[in-house]
């Protein structure tokens, strides 16, 4: 498809007043004006002939089948043309579903007669399935009087899943013995309280670990070795209500929570615990019983990919009551949610406190950096002062709610979006070391 440009329209438009002026000045000079118009048309036609034709350009693109939320994936486009022509400047555009944002380059320089590649970065907004319909290319002729449009049909579905690559990287960072007990410094009094084996007592070991009866029989000091307790039951409870749809650092709060939950799942399964999942919004709609093998991680990944972005208000009474009924043994419940103020959170506090009477509850929220930035900004007018005052009230209300929950025995954690994974691991290990489950 070829079209004239504004430059071509301007070139032709100049010819009409020339014809008019020559006709008024001397009727015999009108052929000069007509000749100008014909010459302009000839120049436009020549530019069209010199312009790279669409049938001479071969364009192929092979997008990834799966991309991860929160990461940018490159779509590599291959260009090839058998005939040498003057270089062209390509302007690419993508016809793609809105859940994926293509970060398009303004222009790509291509020399016909050679093979070349260029990259289109794709960044997903949310989980789901996005379709890449087509790729559009536009380029101008050597004189800039005509442009050609080319549509490259792709028609490929792209599945957007939780960021497993970030989970793997986090697992690598936490895989050593020192990192296994958290990304931060922690107070560790021992390896655990579950008996593992007997060993000869050596200088430096805790005398309280000496097994006196066995030592008397063997006529030498023998001490006990302990290990971290295993087979605990952990439930990842995701609030998927409308507050968790709010974007934070280019991702929904729910997606940050899912990535952190998968990291905790990997580490908990590696340490011998069992992990299950629960999700609710206006009502509970997902529950999977805790599993203890590494195959459970694939199941958790698949289930978390299907967690919905709900527009409903979260019903904590119905959701947490349903969860309490389903659990028949003491568990660690990691509740990933959010709230606006203490007034709307009263029902949440009541039901979380009821859940904490039987189970260990780890209450996890994401910290909003905009609130702190609004409060800390320099106050230069009344409007900024009002915004800073509102931000202070919200921050104060959040701290009041956290303090109320702590007094009820709930473990509270408010983390930055980039630190939520390690902070959650530290909270989990802290609870295990204290043998609260």
Question: Can you describe what's shown?
Answer:
With 437 residues, the chain is α/β, with parallel strands linked by helices. It contains 12 helices and 20 strands. The chain has helices at 6-25, 30-50, 164-173, 177-180, 212-218, 253-270, 295-305, 316-326, 346-356, 369-376, 382-407, 420-433; strands at residues 2-4, 58-61, 66-68, 73-80, 88-96, 100-102, 108-110, 115-124, 128-140, 146-161, 194-200, 222-227, 233-239, 247-248, 251-252, 274-280, 284-291, 332-336, 360-366, 411-415. The strands form 5 sheets. Strands 1, 3, 5, 7, 9 and 10 form a 6-stranded mixed sheet that branches. It has a 6-stranded mixed sheet with strand order 17-16-13-18-19-20, sandwiched between helices. A 4-stranded antiparallel sheet has the order 2-4-8-6, with no helix packed on it. The longest helix has 26 residues, at 382-407. It is elongated. The termini are far apart. Mean pLDDT is 83; it is low at 176-190.
**Mean of all residue-level pLDDT scores:** 83
The total of beta strands comes to: 20
Q: Which radius of gyration do the C-alpha atoms yield?
A: 33 Å
Report how far the terminal alpha carbons are from each other: 68 Å
Judged by helices, strands and strand pairing, the structural class is alpha/beta
What count of helical segments does DSSP give? 12
**Share in helix:** 25-40%
Low-confidence stretches: 176-190
Largest sheet, in brief, is:
6 strands, mixed
Determine the strand fraction and express it as a percent band.
Answer: 25-35%
Label the overall shape: elongated
